[in-house]
């Protein structure tokens, strides 16, 4: 057991990956000497050399595309996209190449590439630095998408992503980089592709992931003071989604709120709402409600607090759910 | 010596065989043709003729409704056979979608190649068997892969001395077209490969057209002139001259293999036919232009040279025509006999590891399809 920030937990996880797999390598913009703009790869180039922690030229399609080529040769590249809003130059490589290589080759080729992307808002930044584009990737078959919400998961899930034979996008909740937590470096965390009940309750369920898990937990605590017992699920994996864990919870509580920073329209909340209404229709006491971002480009930071889901918005949604 | 530094500048394509079949001496490249004997020359002609016959058969199959689409390569045989024959089996090739001739040099079965175009596979052949990657339909998307593959080779070959590199070093050949040269991924790939000195040979077949758009819309200068901007040698070659293409590609591979970094080759050639079987070139290009390129046909050129030097006789061509027809018949038979895999198979290939959504949807699909069997509706 040791206490680490979420960012340092990823660093330690990456260190483990580089140490245990000599085919693993890191590549991205400014990740070597600088250690990345968030210092997530800090110290790793010194330890493993510039040939394993590579400062790449500045081009996202080149980063992901060359990672595909390295994977075809048997390497396991873990690449960093500097910010959520800058992944799009690589969107074609990710969706038309990386995601499909296994299928197109009739299962012969595997491309075990990991793409790390810091995402989400709440950091008071300028445009393109606060987005949550996960649904744009979850819609593409062939990719796996995970996101940790705490240091222990961050440490283990990056290693699980690296060990996975499928391409994995690892979304890092950047506003939680400095969140400290206990990391158990001995006992592996739950399977990266499973959801976890992080607070149990009987009256309603909140599904959250990444940066909003602490918010959901705080809302549950506030609701307790009003006499409501709220179960909170940390989704962890956005593709696949562990619908069994959500279904089981909703069968118990009868009410479900899904929250994410990404816009509600076309977001993963809609998919979860639809699946849960199919799987647990008779258990539902109220429609599944969603608390997400508005249908607008991510707003200017001075007003982002009005855009982002927060404790009050979750409590308001709970009120609406209980009013049915 | 770097070819670009000689009097054979980028503006003059390297030529060994003139269009009327004369062999020219070349100060640099003769050294790369020392082993080319009569057998090899006959072999090159055979390769090109078989490729053309395959192309013709596939076009016919498409016309008969047996393929979704076909991408003819007629006119580009020398560029493909010459470059493909310059590679070693352990080199890795990233083709576009038109490299049927390169595929032949890599021993990829022509029949297997039709699986993609028959709509029964997303790839068709096993890239690991012949180090010949699947075709890539997203223009230039294979080029960053080539850079990354080359970077991976450099990592594997770290610390090798010159001798070992020359003997055992591997390299990558990345094919693309004049139209694809404009894609951003072409640029990114070249920056990556050059910055890391990756052993990549960029082989551009400038067939003068990107579907209906002529080359001058893609570039104001010969593409080869861009090479210098990336810091790599650029060689322009007469792409309808199989010997010149063989020689320059050998030079380029030697350069790349030795750890000196990438090379860019622009092969001037011409797409004698349509872009694909869905295309109609009469809408956008002049018959005069086609007529001007027709005598530059790479097969005619080599045939003239072979005949004038008594390397072949009529019997050679008769036998070759027979062999080609036989090959075409086999390809047709194979193509028609390929089983259509059930959709259920596609579920298995999306992910390498178990995936709950796939399992759920597959189970539903199987149950749904089984319902038709029970009710006898398909009988
Ligand atoms: C990214 C992308 N854009 C457009 C297309 C459609 N398309 C297919 S081939 C082609 C022209 C390609 O020209 P070139 O690169 O010169 O290759 P050629 O077909 O002449 O061999 C176009 C526009 C595509 N396949 N991929
Ligand atoms: Mg072209």
Automatic annotation (TrEMBL), chain A:
Broad EC category: oxidoreductase
Listed cofactors: thiamine diphosphate
Keywords in alphabetical order: Oxidoreductase
Transketolase-like pyrimidine-binding domain boundaries: 4-179
SMART domains (alphabetical): Transket_pyr
An annotated GO BP: branched-chain amino acid catabolic process
Pfam families: Transket_pyr, Transketolase_C
EC id: 1.2.4.4
Coiled coil: none
Sample GO molecular function, one term: magnesium ion binding
Protein name: 3-methyl-2-oxobutanoate dehydrogenase (2-methylpropanoyl-transferring)
TrEMBL record, chain B:
InterPro entries referenced in this protein's UniProt entry, alphabetically: Alpha-ketoacid_DH_E1_comp, DH_E1, THDP-binding
CDD domains recorded: TPP_E1_PDC_ADC_BCADC (cd02000)
Occurrences of domain Dehydrogenase E1 component (ranges): 46-327
Keyword Oxidoreductase included in the entry's annotation: yes
Cofactor(s) essential for the protein: thiamine diphosphate
Catalytic activity line of the entry: N(6)-[(R)-lipoyl]-L-lysyl-[protein] + 3-methyl-2-oxobutanoate + H(+) = N(6)-[(R)-S(8)-2-methylpropanoyldihydrolipoyl]-L-lysyl-[protein] + CO2
Keyword Repressor: no
UniProt-listed Enzyme Commission number(s): 1.2.4.4
EC category: oxidoreductase
Alphabetic keyword roster: Oxidoreductase, Pyruvate, Thiamine pyrophosphate
Pfam families, alphabetized: E1_dh
UniProt-recorded Gene Ontology molecular function terms: branched-chain 2-oxo acid dehydrogenase activity; magnesium ion binding
GO-annotated biological processes: branched-chain amino acid catabolic process
Protein role: The branched-chain alpha-keto dehydrogenase complex catalyzes the overall conversion of alpha-keto acids to acyl-CoA and CO(2). It contains multiple copies of three enzymatic components: branched-chain alpha-keto acid decarboxylase (E1), lipoamide acyltransferase (E2) and lipoamide dehydrogenase (E3).
Family membership noted in the UniProt record: Belongs to the BCKDHA family.
Protein name as annotated: 2-oxoisovalerate dehydrogenase subunit alpha
């Amino acid at each position: 057991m040791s206490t680490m920030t979420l960012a340092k937990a990823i660093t330690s996880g990456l260190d483990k990956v580089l140490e245990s797999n000599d085919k693993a390598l890191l590549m991205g913009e400014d990740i070597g000497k600088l250690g990345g703009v968030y210092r997530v790869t800090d110290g790793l180039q010194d330890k493993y050399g510039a040939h394993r922690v590579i400062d790449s030229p500045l081009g996202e399609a080149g980063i992901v595309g060359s990672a595909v080529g390295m994977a075809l040769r048997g390497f396991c590249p873990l690449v960093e996209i500097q910010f959520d809003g800058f992944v799009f130059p690589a969107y074609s490589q990710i969706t038309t190449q990386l995601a499909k290589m296994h299928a197109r080759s009739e299962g012969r080729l595997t491309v075990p590439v990991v793409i790390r992307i810091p995402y989400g808002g709440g950091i008071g930044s300028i445009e393109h630095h606060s987005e949550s584009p996960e649904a744009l990737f979850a819609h593409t078959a062939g990719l796996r998408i995970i996101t940790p919400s705490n240091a222990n998961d961050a440490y283990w899930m990056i290693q699980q992503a690296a060990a996975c034979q499928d391409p994995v996008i690892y979304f890092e909740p950047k506003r939680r980089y400095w969140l400290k937590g206990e990391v158990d470096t001995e006992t592996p965390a739950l399977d990266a592709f499973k959801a976890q009940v992080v607070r149990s309750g009987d009256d309603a369920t909140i599904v959250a992931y990444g940066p909003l898990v602490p918010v959901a937990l705080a809302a549950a605590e506030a609701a307790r003071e009003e006499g409501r017992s709220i179960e909170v699920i940390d989704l962890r994996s956005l593709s696949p989604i562990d619908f069994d864990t959500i279904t089981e919870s909703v069968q118990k509580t009868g009410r479900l709120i899904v929250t994410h920073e990404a816009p509600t329209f076309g977001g993963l909340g809609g998919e979860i709402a639809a699946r849960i209404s199919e799987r647990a229709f008779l258990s539902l006491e109220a429609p599944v409600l969603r608390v997400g971002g508005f249908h607008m480009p991510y707003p200017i930071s001075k007003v982002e607090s009005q855009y982002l889901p927060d404790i009050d918005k979750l409590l308001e949604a709970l009120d609406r759910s209980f009013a049915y | 010596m770097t070819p670009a530094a000689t009097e054979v500048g980028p503006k003059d394509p390297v030529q060994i065989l003139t269009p009327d079949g004369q062999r020219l001496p070349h100060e640099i490249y003769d050294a790369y043709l020392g082993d080319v004997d009569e057998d090899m020359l006959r072999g090159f002609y055979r390769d090109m003729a078989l490729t053309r016959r395959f192309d013709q058969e596939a076009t016919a199959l498409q016309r008969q409704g047996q393929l979704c689409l076909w991408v003819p390569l007629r006119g580009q045989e020398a560029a493909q056979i010459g470059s493909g024959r310059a590679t070693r089996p352990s080199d890795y090739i990233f083709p576009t979608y038109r490299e049927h001739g390169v595929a032949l040099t890599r021993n990829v079965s022509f029949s297997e190649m039709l699986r993609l175009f028959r709509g029964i596979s997303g790839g068709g052949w096993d890239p690991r068997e012949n180090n010949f990657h699947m075709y890539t339909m997203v223009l230039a998307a294979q080029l960053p892969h080539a850079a990354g593959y080359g970077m991976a080779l450099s990592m594997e070959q770290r610390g090798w001395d010159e001798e070992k590199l020359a003997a055992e070093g591997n390299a990558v050949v990345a094919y693309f077209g004049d139209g694809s040269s404009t894609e951003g991924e072409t640029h990114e790939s070249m920056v990556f490969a050059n910055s890391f000195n990756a052993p990549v040979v960029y082989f551009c077949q400038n067939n003068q057209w990107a579907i209906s758009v002529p080359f001058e819309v893609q570039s104001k200068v010969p593409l080869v002139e861009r090479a210098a901007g990336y810091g790599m040698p650029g060689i322009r070659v007469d792409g309808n001259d199989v010997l010149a293409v063989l020689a320059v590609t050998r030079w380029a591979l030697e350069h790349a293999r030795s750890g000196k970094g990438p090379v860019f080759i622009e092969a001037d050639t011409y797409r004698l036919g349509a872009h694909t079987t869905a295309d109609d070139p009469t809408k956008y290009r002049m018959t005069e232009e086609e007529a001007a390129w027709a005598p530059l046909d790479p097969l005619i050129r080599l045939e003239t040279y072979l005949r004038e030097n008594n390397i072949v006789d009529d019997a050679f061509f008769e036998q070759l025509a027979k062999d080609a027809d036989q090959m075409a018949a086999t390809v047709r038979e194979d193509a028609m006999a390929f089983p259509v895999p059930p959709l259920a198979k596609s579920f298995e290939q999306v992910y390498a590891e178990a995936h709950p959504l796939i399992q759920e949807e597959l189970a539903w699909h199987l149950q749904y399809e089984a319902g038709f069997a029970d009710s006898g509706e398909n009988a």
